[in-house]
Amino acid sequence: MLDFMDYVQNAFAISTGWNPDNSYAALTITANNLLDFYLPRGLGLRVAALSSPNFATSYTLGSAGVVDGSLSFLYSSLGLRVVGKSSDVNLRQLVRGYRHLQQLKAPPESIEPLSDMEGSEGRVWKKDTLLYGRLHLPASTLEALYLRRLTPTRLLRINCVSDATLPNSGTVLALLQNDYGKYSTEYLYSTDSSLLGFRALYNFGYDPRYPVEQQNISYRTPRHPWDHQNGRLSAGAEVYFSPVNKSGGMSTGLRFTTLPIHSGFPYTMTLTLNPLMGNLSSSYAIKAGPNLALCSRFDFNVYSYESDVVLGLELWRQRSTPTDVLWAKALIRPDWPPVRPNEGDTTAVLKARMSDKGKVGALWECRVKDLLVSVGASLDLKKRERVLGSIGLEVSYST
Amino acid sequence: MAFHFNWSPLIADTDRVRQMLTSSLNKSPKPPIIVDDILVNELNLGRTPPSLEILEVGDLAEDRFRGIFKVRYEGDAYLTLKTRVQANPLNTFLSTKPTFASPNPLAAGSGLTIPLQITLSDIRLSGFVILVFSKQKGITLVFRNDPLESLKVSSTFDSIPFVRDYLQKTIEGQLRVLFMEDLPAIIHRLSLRVFDSEGRSIGPSGDREKTDDFLAASDIPSPTTHDPSAPSTMDDGSSAEPVFPFDIPTEMYATFSQKNLLRLATLSESQRTLSLFTPPIRDAVFRARACAAERDELNEDHATPLQRPTTLSALQSTLGISTISGLSSASSFASEAPSYLSRPSITSLPSVSTTYSLGSGSRRSHPTRKRKNRVVNLRRHRDGATDGASDGVSISSGYEDSVSRSESASAYGSTAPVSAEDSTVPTSAPATSVHPKEREGEVDTPHVSPKKKRDLERAHSTLDRVISSADGPAALRPSTPQYLTNPQMLDEDDTPRASIYVTAERNKPDRVPAATTPSEAARLSPLPRSASELSISDLVSAFPMHGSSSGGILEQAWMMKMANEIAKRVAEEKHRHGAKWQQPDASGHGDAPPAYVS
């Protein structure tokens, strides 16, 4: 389950027209959501409030061994109109599962010049800013985030952590993201050992910058063999280098995912390769139904022959349609199609994963009255004497 | 001086060393680059032994040793370690960073663990080692400096300079920790295991035999009439008594070991029997005189107290035993003459022994006897409260001695130097035998000093009280109940007692028949059980005459012992009759020994 502050930050990105999925860092987001989900440990209590559209606060209290907590505050220059109440919030937005990518949208500036935006949408483009801070207690770790939409295609993100245990008692990460629709680039710099990084993602096929093709998108002929009309093929790479350590790293990746116009069930395939370390990772995720998604991932290292297979699933539980009126409908209007349940009308979700090393994780998240409850447990089947690894319960409430 | 090592048997048994190295290498938190346990794969000590040079030997005895060595090693030993390391520097980078500011790479941080084999060779050591060995505490080996001079680390990653340098640095750091912290701990644990199994086999009886052997072998000047078998007869006579009077203090002083208790028991036993054997007790200072006030009075009142120095010097070791106790007398002596403790050379001995002989040669007076009784009373611990009270009293008396000694000793030495020297001659031998123990205790038991200091402070606090009380002898007199007990003993067996007193009074220089008395007295000691309080109190008036007339140390010791005995019986009787009797030590005169007020 997303933290309330992450939920608000996500809402900020969407409100400012930013597409967080069009990034190399989000290439395997579906597999990560289905296989690497967060399991609560110990007891946790989260209280959050979006007291005004611009201001949010959150308090957490946890007891995983020791009692700790955090206070966080968030300010957004853009009024966020999102559902904050835990009784009304859409569980699908709070719990990340299979990520069904939408057709790419053209960045605003490529459609219209910036000066014309005012007239067309009645809204002046503002350099919206988000400030966020969190103080962890009793560790006295301070986290700060600065988000700024520099231009419609550019986002600056600065993460800071202040902690006495860190070298130089803190670290700053600056990330500049450019999203041009067809491709996106990211530049990052971390003060910690002066790490420099570059990430890029390129989407083959449809180019949202030429809206002429958009009108007859379903009728156009493929321009090259990998120009799928029902799906999207993306390729990306990342490079890191630290001049202090004289070390670095890189990886490349491919992804094919189906788009909403695809008639069959949606699926996503990714393949990432770390040529320096010889690491290959492939994942395959399908959304077998409106309430079920399955995923598998296979990791292999060509140098050390280490391998790992992880399987995962997520299962949503819909609010059942009222059965007491079904007989009436069957009598009066038998020709009516059965009502498709609304996707937002979910009450609970079950996530599970299992690796070939015998590690099992299960997470159950549901809404109990006005509270959001998340129960998780991790098991290690290989350890006979201690199968149950950890167990946790988190309760969230937000208004 | 250098050592010749027989190196070949050491090479054979490296399995245990390998196991210990493995556990010690995995104990400390490993750097994030090492993702698996470190296994010691191969250990070869090589063919070249290290060179060891003795720089200083601080202490040398059969069961202990302390010295400083210079160690130098330039041999061909090598060590092979196996572990798994994370080869991706980005992975280790990410694992140490907070997730909030992590760059979150997609796959660039994926791990690659590689089995790594590290060979440590060309080890060059050069350092100063302090080695302290004692049978009780095992072997303590400490490097005074960082012994690691250089080391060659060859690994699978020699072709990558960054990894090689990192490994070299990390391993050197770990090895330094190993030498400075882990190796002393390992050796200490190992030696403790070895000596513990040895020490367990020596039971109390074995220890007794050992001390007896030691007694026979020792060249302590003993009186001609001294019978080495006295301890056994004593034990037979007083079978009703607990064998170890220090059983109760063990609860209080939990640090007392079984061996020390045995020694203290032997000590008290030999004191009772006039045995001159002084068991070696660490952290203890042997004092010849029971208290100081007697000597003050001796110097002031009695002009010629030097008539019997030779006999007294022979007896002094016994008397010293009577005053010694690891608990309070040592501390009192520390307050008396700190220079004696801090300066362990033999040159300081004559003066010390002189004071000993002076004290022992003094004629007893009433306050003296009373104070001495307090010291003796130390060994009779009933409960924690009385212990503390008696401790304080005995310390204060000792301290008072130091105050008075500063002026009196010099004055006395000028008046009668010849006799003082005479007395020193026989005493020096037992004093020297005690000496090394004190040194050793000073060297390797630093935990004793705080207690001493505390006692010293307590002595200071009680000093004023005692001095003020000592001003009026009349105030002190009521609190000397041993007067009750001894005359009663005289009543029981007047013949031997009278003879002793006569000889002690008339012929002070040679008190030969004195040695026979304790055994007899011990044989008769169960008798006073029947004694009633009335009979004792009736005899109070009779005793002071005896006390003033006799004044011998031997009588003192004997009387104290008997007084102890009788008081114990009386206390037992009291307990038997009920709890209506109050504990007298807490109320009334606070410095009175609890046992004798009845």
Automatic annotation (TrEMBL), chain A:
Signal peptide: none annotated. InterPro entries: Mdm10 (IPR027539), Porin_dom_sf (IPR023614). GO terms for cellular component: ERMES complex; SAM complex. It is found in: Mitochondrion outer membrane. Gene3D superfamilies: Porin. It is a multi-pass membrane protein. GO terms for biological process: establishment of mitochondrion localization; mitochondrial outer membrane translocase complex assembly; mitochondrion-endoplasmic reticulum membrane tethering; phospholipid transport; protein insertion into mitochondrial outer membrane. Pfam families: MDM10. Keywords: Membrane, Mitochondrion, Mitochondrion outer membrane, Transmembrane, Transmembrane beta strand. Component of the ERMES/MDM complex, which serves as a molecular tether to connect the endoplasmic reticulum and mitochondria. Components of this complex are involved in the control of mitochondrial shape and protein biogenesis and may function in phospholipid exchange. MDM10 is involved in the late assembly steps of the general translocase of the mitochondrial outer membrane (TOM complex). Functions in the TOM40-specific route of the assembly of outer membrane beta-barrel proteins, including the association of TOM40 with the receptor TOM22 and small TOM proteins. Lacks alpha-helical transmembrane segments, suggesting that it resides in the membrane via beta-sheet conformations similar to those predicted for other outer membrane proteins and porin. Belongs to the MDM10 family. Component of the ER-mitochondria encounter structure (ERMES) or MDM complex, composed of MMM1, MDM10, MDM12 and MDM34. Associates with the mitochondrial outer membrane sorting assembly machinery SAM(core) complex. This is Mitochondrial distribution and morphology protein 10.
From TrEMBL, chain B:
Residues 363-382 have a biased composition (Basic residues). It is a multi-pass membrane protein. Pfam families: Mdm34_N. Residues 1-192 form the SMP-LTD domain. Belongs to the MDM34 family. PANTHER family: MITOCHONDRIAL DISTRIBUTION AND MORPHOLOGY PROTEIN 34. This is Mitochondrial distribution and morphology protein 34. It comes from Neohortaea acidophila. The lineage of its organism: Eukaryota, Fungi, Dikarya, Ascomycota, Pezizomycotina. The gene is MDM34.
